[in-house]
């Protein structure tokens, strides 16, 4: 399926090579939603221009309160990303908190962020609706995410559907800041792939750690098989023809199957006369095959933790250089830096 960029306003920007940026939270092991919605795009786009990918540990602080666990999850996230094909020679891979400039930039953006805008954001709104206590970190989360994006002059942000609202907030805040202080920030566009924008979980809802309905990329195969066998299905009779388009089991199989296998399965659905057990078995096999190479790479990387830490240290240096230049421009524009307006982009 072709990728979708929202909104299409490239004409408003001067022509320059694309700068791709995205972040992912280290709040647990990556699941298929993370991979097919976002990570696969990171890898595809790492040759498209400059590319910055980071592990969002500052964001994770609102949910992971155990310091040792957080450190472990950050390291594991880096291992997973490289094992899945992220190439640190092509893309800058770093940890969000290694670039403190972003936290300062967040404050500049906070001062132009309307409360009403943040109150409408779903991460906060959902928690409030469920009667759960929310902290200021969760409330201001879209402002930190905006700083993450604007600090690198990113033009393209590959994400799943659930992050589109936050990128709209980022564009709003950047637009307001630019309106007040001159053309400081580059307005980014979200990039979605239709086939992975909203990957369903084993219960048919959106796949999400918080719904406990995930299939994890590097889960051991016997427990993945058990989960697949538990995927909810309907009780229509076996012989009845079915529309593959509205079945989450089919959608999951389509993600990992080869094109001919996917087509064959679609025909089987339309014809009828099959059991869901057959689809589940095919899904178990295709999933094991799809991620087999990444599993092997992961095992090799795990044996060399120093290599991953060196990649992250090197990435932090490259990322900081870029963020420092953007922050200097923003400080100058809004009157924090004294002296000439030299930091401002012409
Ligand atoms: P996070 O860590 O929740 O998810 C990482 C990426 O995975 C995508 N995703 C999905 N895509 C399709 N179907 C699903 N079921 C699914 N579940 C998750 C997400 O859309 C995301 O792209 N706030 C972000 C992290 C972040 C960020 C940023 C992203 C922080 N700063 C700046 C982009 C730019 C988050 O919590 O993603």
Tell me what you see in this structure.
This protein is mostly helical and 346 residues long. The protein is 51% helix and 8% strand. The chain contains 15 helices and 6 strands. The protein has helices at 32-45, 57-60, 67-83, 101-110, 115-119, 122-129, 136-139, 141-150, 164-181, 221-229, 248-256, 259-271, 276-290, 292-302, 305-334, and strands at 3-6, 19-24, 50-55, 92-95, 156-158, 189-193. The strands form 2 sheets. It has a 3-stranded mixed sheet with strand order 1-6-5. The protein has a 3-stranded parallel sheet with strand order 2-3-4. Helix 8 (141-150) crosses helix 9 (164-181). The longest helix has 30 residues, at 305-334. The mean pLDDT is 93.
Indicate the radius of gyration in whole angstroms: 22 Å
Main β sheet profile: 3 strands, mixed
Compute the number of structural domains.
2
Tally of individual helices: 15
CATH architectural group of the largest domain: 3-Layer(aba) Sandwich
What name does CATH use for the topology of the largest domain?
Rossmann fold
CATH class term of the largest domain? Alpha Beta
Distance between the termini: 39 Å
**Structure summary, number of beta strands:** 6
Give the SSE order as H and E letters: EEHEHHEHHHHHEHEHHHHHH
Report strand %: 5-15%
Class derived from helix and strand content: mainly alpha
The CATH superfamily of the largest domain appears as HUPs
Short description:
The protein has 346 residues and is mainly alpha-helical. It is built from 15 helices and six strands. The radius of gyration is 22 Å and the shape is globular.
